[in-house]
């Protein structure tokens, strides 16, 4: 008897497989048809592969380690004014187009940034800006540190309240608390989070070129883009994508060795998760960490806000084009967000229900690899596959939503999986004994327990596809003009103020989504 | 009776829209069963004594010392929870060893003490096991072994055996009673099982909803002249469990 | 003036539907069809003339346009393709998707003249270094001065692997320095703040003040003059001349079946189309306009010399030149 949940997982994987496989098949078809040359694995490729790896490893480190520290501080300080707003803000970078974030960072750290003058004074020479590896790392940390912090926070929240009490009773100091209470769940989630961040950094493109200072900073993604754009060489693009997949696969495998699959005691405490904070020093340190994180993440956003406010916002929101693009963006984001949450749920369920190590790994991380297949390649591949049918435009919206959903699945899965596992461990036997299954179980048990993570996953998925440009840029039919697309259009025609206004709009939309998800997903107040 | 064991002197506490006022004394060297319906504040009472919650008003005294502002690890208290008493990634011996040194740098002597404590609760052969390889009853015993090793004069138990069968519960009660006698422990013990309370409690604190409370000698409580509210409560509890009430027996 | 044209067009519009029906699919880049681009004006004017329905399909830019065509191949619905530049025409021709335009280029004035039978120019411009007068007192007067100038005075350029202006500068340097281009790049490298993937990113950095110079077009100051009423940003005129970019359109093999395609190309060379170009596309019109150019255009730098490579040579050597650039810039 095969569990229905496993079927759900296979369906989800099949979806990913068809989407990616179809793209590769389309490429292959084109290569066979027109005979492309892959150009082989030359010195240039070796060098950019090296750089891709190097910057991604460093970026992962500078995102994950601070993310961990921030998550601990946020977890210990569970109620301070503005905490949920801060968590909402932490999701905004996801939705910001890379160039907007880069300009936000440069407003602070650029050669003409806010901090340039004091830095000039300190250095005694003109501040050179952050161009080069440092700029790449700072920007990647801006994008990924908040993400890592949020995911780690989720992991910390799975620690039962009684364990914290126990730690306090046994007089653990900060180090011991970290080692014995916080580290185990963090370690469990570390490979996943680090793997996710690594993949995002491997595929970085605009940031690497814009802040990298020159072609020494070139990633594989740049080469893929180049191969598809100027050289129009699908074979080479596919080859480079395979190299990228292998890199990511190796990294994920290595990270897997770091983590341990320690299943905690299944019974989670259901008492209110309240425990008195540590001493004053601890509280002060936490406050400092949170403040620094707020400044790091918030300041570039303030810059985005500031330049956005210079724009004629009223005129902008009154424009038909802007309204239409907002509608299109929201609709696409809603569909792909829902799809992503659903896929993540299916995968989490299948992973939980399957017994073999292999299928667990497959359901757990299989879909993540979609992240390192550039959307532009998926788009191009499908374009080639479908061109004989003449139906390219009819499927474009479906394609955009599907690709965005697939890209959001790894994020959604990080949010849904721990909650699913915990809830399943708590209720599986009970449901079995009561004969609760199928829709009844879904409605009475799974939904109430998973609504919070599912809403978060939905919001993450939506935020992610709100900011997406990749697939759209290639399909680029006027019917699918999204906000980021419009933003680039304005930027490309000197209308920088409009672009800044649209960036602000995009950021606000994302923040509103995260806050709404938070509210909708909140557990109902106990009577 | 010796010097007062634990005193809650007009301790006020509020959580969300529920507020409690505790004013109780628990004698040294005695076992008190804390009983009452859910939401009456049984766990809160224990958390106030252990230091996980701070009173809004009033004082918590252990012996003659006001511990109201003292952090949990400085209080002369050990508490055993219903679940999650053990760290999943540490062995049984390590979990117990934490009671002696949170850094787990144990001397040979301390190691011997850990072994002895585990022997005493009947886990001699399972020192290197991980918690997930133990049964529920065994996990509770590890927690008790650690409490014994920490050697604090107050032991708080929050329904520690709710998930265990009658025979296992009996074992646990025996262990607790032995520890109490051996070290003159003051024990507070939250339970929903009248049998457990009857078996080892000297006194009963019955917390009702709306902050009313009754306390007295366990024998009186379970005797034919016990308070009607308490009778109603355990009667209900028994009906819920679908079991006949046990015959009254003197402690 | 404008109302006269519109009036005239309106009359045409009344007459037109009587004899022409049908539709025309035009592929172009997005800034052409955006609200402030020439697209809306052009569409209205042509539809009035032909009594037909013009459907614009827009993609990101000229390169994406060519790729879109290559992806769609012979099944592409495109009938007219508008917005390729001369660096792409050789490759576009080699796809075999284009048919001769069959329109006389006589009325068109493009520096260097025009003889291509597949593509017709509709506008042109020059790549140029735009500088911020508030940060640069003495702008470089030649490419040589740019290459050899103060390394602390930075410029933002675009990547030739991913962007059209980036490729433009690559060709420009090549046209001026010939085989010494790699050495020139090695010197210029010291002045390069960063190399962005596209024009937007570079211009964004420039207007934020990150660098006092940026690679753009000679027409860039016109936008700031006309729309923002500021003369803060100026073009540095280079004595060696400026590299030319010509934007072209052509009809596809499929389009050759549709008489409207040729009609559109013919229309493109006239004032109904050309009037829209200067202040929407910010390029120089290739054909005659009815209304004079905004005075701002008169203030723009007129290159002393026009530099360009034949499209075939670009197609052939681009890869080698980019590799050369990569090697020099990565050293």
From TrEMBL, chain A:
The keyword Ribosomal protein does not apply. The chain crosses the membrane at residues 12-32, 52-74, 86-110, 130-153, 189-211, 237-260, 281-306, 326-349, 361-385, 391-413, 454-476, 496-517. Residues 49-256, 326-517 form the ABC transmembrane type-1 domain. It is found in: Cell inner membrane; Cell membrane. It is a multi-pass membrane protein. InterPro entries: MetI-like, MetI-like_sf, ThiP_ABC_transpt. Signal peptide: none annotated. Keywords: Cell inner membrane, Cell membrane, Membrane, Repeat, Transmembrane, Transmembrane helix, Transport. Its main location: membrane. The keyword Membrane applies. The complex is composed of two ATP-binding proteins (ThiQ), two transmembrane proteins (ThiP) and a solute-binding protein (ThiB). Belongs to the binding-protein-dependent transport system permease family. PANTHER family: MOLYBDENUM TRANSPORT SYSTEM PERMEASE PROTEIN MODB, THIAMINE TRANSPORT SYSTEM PERMEASE PROTEIN THIP. NCBIfam families: thiP. This is Thiamine transport system permease protein ThiP. It comes from Mesorhizobium liriopis.
From TrEMBL, chain B:
Keywords: ATP-binding, Cell inner membrane, Cell membrane, Membrane, Nucleotide-binding, Translocase, Transport. The keyword Nucleotide-binding applies. Residues 1-234 form the ABC transporter domain. GO terms for molecular function: ATP binding. The keyword tRNA processing does not apply. Gene3D superfamilies: P-loop containing nucleotide triphosphate hydrolases. Belongs to the ABC transporter superfamily. PANTHER family: SPERMIDINE/PUTRESCINE IMPORT ATP-BINDING PROTEIN POTA, THIAMINE IMPORT ATP-BINDING PROTEIN THIQ. This is Thiamine ABC transporter ATP-binding protein.
From TrEMBL, chain C:
The keyword Transport applies. Coiled coil: none annotated. SUPFAM superfamilies: Periplasmic binding protein-like II. Pfam families: SBP_bac_1. InterPro entries: SBP (IPR006059), ThiB (IPR005967), ThiB-like (IPR005948). The keyword Signal applies. NCBIfam families: sfuA, thiB. This is Thiamine-binding periplasmic protein. It comes from Mesorhizobium liriopis. The lineage of its organism: Bacteria, Pseudomonadati, Pseudomonadota, Alphaproteobacteria, Hyphomicrobiales.
